[in-house]
Amino acid sequence: MASSSTTYTNGSTSYGQRSNLKSRLTSLDSEIASVERDIAKLQTLRHSLLEEKTGVQRELEASMGRTLSARPPAGPGPSNASARGKGKGKGIDYMDEFEWGQELLHRARKVFGIKDFRFCQKGVCNANMDGRDIVCVMPTGGGKSLTYQLPALLTPGTTVVISPLVSLIADQIMHLREAGVEAVMLTGATSKEESRDIFTRLGQKKQTKGRGAVRAVDDGNSEQEEIKLCYVTPERIAKSKTFMSLMEKMALDGRLARIVIDEAHCVSSLGHDFRPDYKKLSILRQLFPTVPILALSATCPPSVLKDLLKILKMRPVVDGNAATIDGTVYFSSPLYRANLHYSVLPKPSSQAAAIQAMADYILAHHARDSGIVYCLSKKDTQTVADGIREASGGKIKTGVYHADVEDEVKEGIHRKWRNGQVQVVCATIAFGLGIDKGDVRFVLHHSMSKSIDGFYQESGRAGRDGKDADCVLYYRGQDATRLSSLICGEIEGQEKLHEMLRFAQNLTDCRKLLFARYFSSSSDLSTAAWEDPSAGPGTSLAKCGHCDNCTRSPSTIERRDVSVQSWQLLRIVEAVCREGGRVTVGILSDLARGLAGGAFNVSSGGKKRKRTEKAELDLEDVAGGKVGLSKDDVETLTIQLILDHYLKEDFHQTAYAINVYLSPGSQAPRLTRLSKSAVASGSGPRLECTFMTAKRRGSTTKAATAKSKQLSIKDSEWIPKRKPKASQPSQIEGNEDYEAQLDDEMDDIEAADDFGQQRQLSPAIFDIPDSDETDVQEGDDWQLDFRGSKRRPSADKPASKRMKTERESGRHNVDTDADGITAVWEDGQEVYVISP
């Protein structure tokens, strides 16, 4: 019986569970039926709303057409605005007059001191006021900031501006506050107390009517003012959930006026300055589907534009001069700026001489003007700043700016530079994006940029006020080696660097046309982007008439047939590589000219410490004798052979750096399969190269202890000729020579007679950090590869009797024995020896 009772109880429990499940099922069926009835109602409502939306869109389009056709023409002659504004698909011309036009211009004059709009500023402001999504491509210095700052004053709510660099944000905030505009920034440098205050103010609802926010700018009561512009970095958007939550609240309350993405090309990995955090901005359209987005850039080729629209989830672009009601309104301005005068000047071989040349140039041409000197590394900025100040006898006041400088110090340097207390800022690329100082009269590049895109943007910081400004690049062939090691891992990095090298090596073609060709081929941009707005259409392929190549005297350059010299260089590289040696640009230049006794190092192996042995190069047997070119000309030709694929660069990773060596390229057999006499008689391809005819006379004085002299030809032969200003002499007085110094760059060897002068180890290894301010970092000292000394330590001097004083310079060990013989060891190899 007990067993039967237990079975009944279990059966009773199972029955209760089934009953409950049936009841829940009935309840769910009822709820689903209710939801389906609601869905039917909502679908009916949706259909009704869609019909209403269509009607409103048609009415708005028709209203735009009537408004435009009713307005008087903006300028002389009949306006075509009415034709574009009427009818389906005709579109809106945002360069026309709108009801807010007078207020825009009034505010531009009163708040920003701007008398009239430039380029497409007017159209972008109008489209902004109309609540459109916009992409605006305008050259550096074209006035992109005004296109969102001005509309922000005339619309209720806050405009959030996403900007890549803290320095750029600080500069914008400084200018806006000086103009009386309530602007704030939220960056890593913002204190917690200030951040809390900003969050509180942004989270509060403002009781404004119509254009009340505009009047708030002039009230002078900060407690009542609405924050008009809030600047943040892309990292803040990508990583701060608190700020994104605040933005959502602002959007729901109708207080998020628009979102601006500055330097928008950083969104695309196809652009020249891609930043991963920018790509995360794709979330903006999902979270804020009704908030208009403005994307700004100085260079945005079609491929980048397509990628940008996809990532930001923006609609296809429509022309800002004939914009339909849907789509992203697109504006662009000519990239050519006629007030910028471009020059490429020969860079002296030693660092001290190069710095002296820049100081002389500034004193001669811009003694009282503000300028920027761009350097490759943080370490270079300090060296160049100190050097220019000393070389000028204290006449040029310099400041240093890079990512590792404390924010307070950066702001101080920036402020002093703007008010004239600092004349020249020596900086990495961390300084410049959006820096709004109109009277920058010169931008010098101590080292070459990694791409023409970067060079165009960096040099474009000059002459923003529309007045004449100089953009000068100091270039020598070995700069290519240093840069190659930095960008070998970048997508298209090598191709972009080679285009920059072609630009620098070109001594004949107009710089404007070189820019136009590059952007037309690499970015699919129309050459019309390089038209001179003041000269009218059809001028895109006309020479500028004021760059160094346009104004250069024919007597200062010479184009030569270098087929035989090229054959010689290629045979030397082949011979070194065949013997297991490695050759750099500097070593090749020395070997080709018969220096260092024709000796080069080859590895001899070894278990514990790799050793090197000397190999002798018989120039007569290998290359038919010495190459009859100067050091600089050999370097120029070597770079040309790299660009034409007769030579190629090989990259070798060490524990500390990437070394760059040369080897025969794919085109080399076209020459090397022939004899020297065959090449000389015209067989094989004919190679030509343009060289400067001015020569530098050498001096054995150390660069560290003597000032360099000036160029051996008058400065006016190098600098573009234009009407000189009162404060700018047309040329440097005197006709002196630059001294040739021992190279302090990577693996550059001078004559054997100069080996007794110990050289200072140069800076060399650079990495690009993942930070808000992308600088090149030096890390350890610059990779050195001195090979081929003429003298070796005395064979009768045992190594055990050497007095070793190991000094670390990067990863180099420097040993000095009792006789004063110094050996530099690199990765276990003795690569350079200095005899007393």
UniProtKB/TrEMBL annotation:
<dbReference type="GO" id="GO:0003677">
    <property type="term" value="F:DNA binding"/>
</dbReference>
<keyword id="KW-0238">DNA-binding</keyword>
<dbReference type="GO" id="GO:0005694">
    <property type="term" value="C:chromosome"/>
</dbReference>
<keyword id="KW-0175">Coiled coil</keyword>
<dbReference type="Pfam" id="PF16124">
    <property type="entry name" value="RecQ_Zn_bind"/>
</dbReference>
<dbReference type="InterPro" id="IPR032284">
    <property type="entry name" value="RecQ_Zn-bd"/>
</dbReference>
<comment type="similarity">
    <text>Belongs to the helicase family. RecQ subfamily.</text>
</comment>
<feature type="compositionally biased region" description="Basic and acidic residues">
    <location>
        <begin position="793"/>
        <end position="815"/>
    </location>
</feature>
<dbReference type="InterPro" id="IPR001650">
    <property type="entry name" value="Helicase_C-like"/>
</dbReference>
<dbReference type="InterPro" id="IPR027417">
    <property type="entry name" value="P-loop_NTPase"/>
</dbReference>
<dbReference type="GO" id="GO:0016887">
    <property type="term" value="F:ATP hydrolysis activity"/>
</dbReference>
<keyword id="KW-0347">Helicase</keyword>
<feature type="compositionally biased region" description="Low complexity">
    <location>
        <begin position="69"/>
        <end position="84"/>
    </location>
</feature>
<keyword id="KW-0067">ATP-binding</keyword>
<dbReference type="GO" id="GO:0009378">
    <property type="term" value="F:four-way junction helicase activity"/>
</dbReference>
<keyword id="KW-0547">Nucleotide-binding</keyword>
<feature type="region of interest" description="Disordered">
    <location>
        <begin position="768"/>
        <end position="821"/>
    </location>
</feature>
<dbReference type="InterPro" id="IPR014001">
    <property type="entry name" value="Helicase_ATP-bd"/>
</dbReference>
<keyword id="KW-0378">Hydrolase</keyword>
<feature type="domain" description="Helicase ATP-binding">
    <location>
        <begin position="125"/>
        <end position="318"/>
    </location>
</feature>
<dbReference type="Pfam" id="PF00271">
    <property type="entry name" value="Helicase_C"/>
</dbReference>
<keyword id="KW-0413">Isomerase</keyword>
<dbReference type="GO" id="GO:0005634">
    <property type="term" value="C:nucleus"/>
</dbReference>
<dbReference type="GO" id="GO:0046872">
    <property type="term" value="F:metal ion binding"/>
</dbReference>
<dbReference type="GO" id="GO:0005524">
    <property type="term" value="F:ATP binding"/>
</dbReference>
<protein>
    <recommendedName>
        <fullName>ATP-dependent DNA helicase</fullName>
        <ecNumber>5.6.2.4</ecNumber>
    </recommendedName>
</protein>
<dbReference type="GO" id="GO:0005737">
    <property type="term" value="C:cytoplasm"/>
</dbReference>
<dbReference type="InterPro" id="IPR011545">
    <property type="entry name" value="DEAD/DEAH_box_helicase_dom"/>
</dbReference>
<keyword id="KW-0539">Nucleus</keyword>
<keyword id="KW-0479">Metal-binding</keyword>
<dbReference type="InterPro" id="IPR036388">
    <property type="entry name" value="WH-like_DNA-bd_sf"/>
</dbReference>
<feature type="domain" description="Helicase C-terminal">
    <location>
        <begin position="357"/>
        <end position="508"/>
    </location>
</feature>
<dbReference type="InterPro" id="IPR004589">
    <property type="entry name" value="DNA_helicase_ATP-dep_RecQ"/>
</dbReference>
<dbReference type="InterPro" id="IPR002464">
    <property type="entry name" value="DNA/RNA_helicase_DEAH_CS"/>
</dbReference>
<feature type="region of interest" description="Disordered">
    <location>
        <begin position="56"/>
        <end position="88"/>
    </location>
</feature>
<dbReference type="GO" id="GO:0000724">
    <property type="term" value="P:double-strand break repair via homologous recombination"/>
</dbReference>
<dbReference type="Pfam" id="PF00270">
    <property type="entry name" value="DEAD"/>
</dbReference>
<feature type="region of interest" description="Disordered">
    <location>
        <begin position="716"/>
        <end position="735"/>
    </location>
</feature>
<feature type="coiled-coil region">
    <location>
        <begin position="18"/>
        <end position="52"/>
    </location>
</feature>
<feature type="compositionally biased region" description="Acidic residues">
    <location>
        <begin position="769"/>
        <end position="783"/>
    </location>
</feature>
<dbReference type="GO" id="GO:0043138">
    <property type="term" value="F:3'-5' DNA helicase activity"/>
</dbReference>
